[in-house]
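In response to a reviewer's request, we include the raw inputs and outputs for one of the modeled complexes. The two entities were modeled together in a single run.
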Amino acid sequence: QKEVEQNSGPLSVPEGAIASLNCTYSDRGSQSFFWYRQYSGKSPELIMSIYSNGDKEDGRFTAQLNKASQYVSLLIRDSQPSDSATYLCAVTSTGGGNKLTFGTGTQLKVEL
Amino acid sequence: GAVVSQHPSWVICKSGTSVKIECRSLDFQATTMFWYRQFPKQSLMLMATSNEGSKATYEQGVEKDKFLINHASLTLSTLTVTSAHPEDSSFYICSVSPHGNTEAFFGQGTRLTVV
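The model returned the following structure tokens for the whole complex.
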């Protein structure tokens, strides 16, 4: 079974610090990788997408992908209390078209 | 991105009744839409892929006769939970992936409570 693994947390960081969220996946053929933010009671919101090895930066967010290690991460710089949410890692499946497999999410708490 | 509208946001129904949830793609024509279910403290689980003008494709373990999907137009897909029971209480969310891209954009979700 194709799986996406995340530490459930909660991950607590002080305001202004860097939050590091990690995700591993089992399907070596996966080509597309996404990070979603989900506030409690709300639907997921796309934060970052990454398709090739290396880093991709967008504002305070940096996604990192290492296909050889089957590992994708999200760094949040200058963390704010408004970043407190659950972050979901999602991966496309080999031969699955646009179907996404989600991890269980990491709860992030940014403390004042 | 894509703008997806889902209705209703929440619904409470009696056990044994049916509930219809609508998912609308507001800014592009979606030949495919996806329906997910999320139980508390769990991740999103894909239930089915809704295909415009043809039958939906259901994931393993999802009862197609219980979760009826209709995708009659390029902007609207509906999910009907038939004969709902308390164990069907969950957060149902639809998504679209515009222009063949794999990025998924979600509706607001529907909180279903069956009493």
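As requested, we also summarize the result in words. The two ends of chain A are 40 Å apart (CA to CA). The first strand of chain A starts at residue 4 and ends at 6.
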